[in-house]
Amino acid sequence: MATVVFYEKPGCVGNTKQKHLLETAGHTLQVHNLLAEPWTPERLRPFFGDLPVAAWFNPTAPPITGGQVVPEALAASQALALMVEQPILIRRPLVQVGDRCVVGFDLATIDAWIGLAPATDLAEDVQSCPQG
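Request: output the structure for the sequence above.
Response:
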C-alpha cells in the first residue's frame, strides 16, 4: 500500500469521501490543508501535468463563479500566480505518491495508479461538489 500525501479543503464533503476510499484500500494518508500550504508556482505546477490551464481550477471557487477569474483566459504563469495568492482557486484534491503528483480524483486513474478496494464503483463521481 502507498503513503498518499493528500491536500484537501478541510470540511469538503468530496474530499472526505475520497480520503475514505483511499483508507479503505489500505493506503496511509498524510493530510494537509490545501488552503494553508505555502505554495509557490514551482511547487504547485507538477500537480497539473499536461492538463489544460482551465482544468487546474476549482470551478466552484467564488472568484470563478463570480466572474472575477476566467481560467480559460489565463496563461500558465498567470494561473499559478493567482493560485498562490488565492489557494481556493486550486482544483482539489492534490495527491502525491512518491514523485508523482496529480490533481483531482478520477477513480479509474487512482485505481490504476495505486489501487482502490475491489468493491469500489469506478463509475461513481467523487470529484464534483455534492453541494454544487
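The domain at 1-34+92-132 is CATH 3.40.30.10 (Glutaredoxin).
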